[in-house]
Design brief:
The protein is an alpha/beta fold. The protein is built from 5 helices and 5 strands; from the N terminus they run ααβαβαβαββ. It has one domain: Rossmann fold (3-Layer(aba) Sandwich). Helix 3 links the parallel strand 1 and strand 2.
């Protein structure tokens, strides 16, 4: 972890500017541990920001294990991909897809960043999305905890354009 909880984007930018890639990457482990860290968050509305090339070549957790945890956590993962245009390894080649899939599972978004100085623009956009997010909860009338999926119907009355995303966790998130 490079930066603990912060509202100062400059702290993240500074660390990102001076970060030098080296060694092996345990991205899936970092995401899993990020969810553990979220349990310490003091605000109810949470989001995890992952800045990476998406390559993973050293994690103990598998992609399936992390995706299962992500689905249950009800925490959106916004990922910011900083990618080399020339992929040297298979992990780097699959990196953009991995970041996109993990963000998509949570109903969030994956951004591509060419210039680290643009990070503040991306984080402002994420902040706006988080502030304009509504969460609807559903409790079935059948109180049996059988783990079965239930169909629900949500009707929206609005003149404006609304983007609706459902997460597969215990809560559906509507943006």
């Amino acid at each position: 972890m490079v930066q603990d909880f912060t509202q100062a984007v400059e702290n993240i930018q500074e660390k990102l500017l001076f970060a030098l890639p080296k060694g092996r990457t345990a991205l899936l482990d970092a995401i899993y541990l990020g969810f553990n860290k979220m349990e310490e968050a003091r605000y109810a509305r949470k989001a995890l920001l992952v800045i990476s090339d998406g390559g993973d070549n050293h994690s103990r957790y598998t992609e399936g294990e992390v995706k299962s945890r992500v689905k249950e956590a009800d925490v959106p993962i916004y990922s910011v991909g900083i990618f080399d245009r020339e992929f040297r390894t298979r992990e780097e080649l699959l990196g953009p897809e991995l970041l996109n899939e993990i963000s998509d599972v949570t109903g969030a978004q994956c951004y591509t960043l060419d210039n680290p100085n643009d990070l503040s623009i991306v984080t402002r956009h994420i902040g706006v999305r988080l502030r304009h997010q509504y969460v609807l909860a559903y409790a079935p009338s059948n109180s049996k905890d059988d783990g079965k999926w239930r169909k629900i119907k949500v009707k929206l009355n609005s003149e404006s354009q609304i983007l609706v995303r459902l997460t597969s966790g215990s809560l559906g998130t509507f943006l």
